[in-house]
Structures are given as C-alpha cells and as structure tokens.
Amino acid sequence: MFPFKYPVPQTDPPLSPRETLPTMYDLKSEDPEEPGLPDEFHDWQAQLLSLTFRPPHYPPQQVFCASDMNLYYDVRHPGWYKRPDWFGVVGVPRLYEQVDMRLSYVVWQEGVNPYVVVELLSPGTEKEDLGETEAETLPVESREGVGNGQAIEPQVEHKPPRKWQVYERILRIPYYVVFSRYTNQLRGFTLAGGHYQELELQESRVWIPELDLGLGLWQGEFQGIERLWLRWYDAQQNWILTEAEQERQRAEAAEAQLQSLLERLRESGIDPDTLLGG
C-alpha cells in the first residue's frame, strides 16, 4: 500500500526527492510509543470533517468534534488515552462547562462517548487502525459495562488495550470509519452484538441513520488541493457545505441575478452602463 521504504537504495539515474527523502513515519520520535504526528493530509481532512459535521437534530452548541485530541477512556487508568484522527460527539456542550475550549476529552467526566470515530490510515498505524495487531485479552470482569457503557476494570498486565479494542469493547463507539488516501478506499464498521461488523457500502458512502447524516467520498477542491476527500452529506444526498462554500455560492447567485437583470435591461433598450453612469 505504501510504495516507499526508508532508506531508499540509491540508483543511477537518481530517484526524485519525493521518492528518497524520509517521511515523518520513517524517522524515530522522541516518544518510542508515538507512531508519528499528523501529516498535512490528516490536518486538512480532519478540518473538512469538522466543518461539515452538522447533525440536523442537534443545535450547534450541543455538537463537539475534534481531531488529534487525547481521548481518555478509563477512570482507573486516567493516563491511558487514544488519539483519534477525528471523532464526533452529540449531546454534549460545544464548549467545556459552556465557557472554555477543551484541552482533552475525558469520557467519565463528560458522561457521553463519541458517536463516530474516523481514522485516516498511515504507514505506522494501519494495522492497529484495522484491528490487525495482536490484542491483549481482557479479564472477564473488565468486559462489563459501567455507567456510560464503559468498561473500567484494569487490563491484563496493566497494559493499555489496542485502539480497535478501546473503540469496540470499552467505549463501544457505534460507528467506526477508516479511509486510506493511498488507495482511496473507505470502510465503515458498526457495532453488532458487541463487535464491529463491516458495512457493505454503496458508492463509498456510510449512512448513519441515528444522526440523519452520512460520510462519503467527494471529488473536489479543498484548501487548493483537488482530490478525493471524505466529507458529510445529508438525507437528500447533498454534500454539506462549509461556511466558505456557502458564501461563495451566495456570491455566485448574486452575480447571476445581477447579470440577468442587466440582460433584461438591454433587451428593453436600456443601456445599463449609461444608466449606472447617470
């Protein structure tokens, strides 16, 4: 899936810098457990998801979403966290205590788990994002939900569980979506019987009926970059527009109305330039 592996053998003629220079995923982090900070695509894609995440049955002040934010999930291990590329929560205040922006999301304080998580596949995290790494076995007592559907008992050997395990069995997040910009493949999973079941997608779209909202692949330009992007759409299959897109749409509509008016004046024998000049 990922074509280059650093270091790349030298060739004659030499390969381009794009093919030979190391990426953030090739270089070691100061934190040996850190697979790498988000790249540029992760930043822009998460921003587009946040700008278009508008569940119609929730007021904006009761919708929270974040990207690359620490998500703390176990009150008995308060230092354990996952850092989703993007997650959305409904039914919680947009601002913490109605006043301030959050520095993290602590589920046992908020009382509401995320409803949907999106992971953008990266070379260092792909297997974990897809649940393909060897998972630790949870003790029987830790599988019992407490409070907000959250298992809070200690894990075997006091090691944090894998990401898939946290989303599926501890937080029980109803919808889990993964997207690879390398293959443009979108996959969606939903909880069924306590485990994630992969959805059969039509036209690379994931519909979430409880939110009356869907996620799909859109070909277009965002932040000056033309490609396939993951974004939200409504029940009428319309892409939800960002504020900038709405403003541009209004400006285009106003310009079209003006041109139509000028054309009607010309058809009536009135020169708009003379009229405006007068």
Would you kindly provide a written description of the structure presented here, covering whatever features stand out?
The protein is α+β, with helices and mostly antiparallel strands. The protein has 7 helices and 12 strands. The chain has helices at residues 17-20, 40-52, 107-110, 126-129, 163-170, 243-267, 272-277; strands at 63-66, 71-72, 81-82, 86-90, 105-106, 116-120, 175-180, 185-192, 195-198, 205-208, 213-222, 225-233. The strands form 3 sheets. Strands 1-4-6-7-8-9 form a 6-stranded mixed β-sheet. A hairpin with a 2-residue loop joins strand 8 and strand 9. It is globular and about 85 Å long.
Brief overview:
With 278 residues, the chain is an alpha+beta fold. It contains seven helices and twelve strands.
How is the topology of this model organized?
Blueprint: H1 17-20, H2 40-52, E1 63-66, E2 71-72, E3 81-82, E4 86-90, E5 105-106, H3 107-110, E6 116-120, H4 126-129, H5 163-170, E7 175-180, E8 185-192, E9 195-198, E10 205-208, E11 213-222, E12 225-233, H6 243-267, H7 272-277
Parallel strand pairs: 2-5, 6-7
Antiparallel strand pairs: 1-4, 2-3, 4-6, 7-8, 8-9, 10-11, 11-12
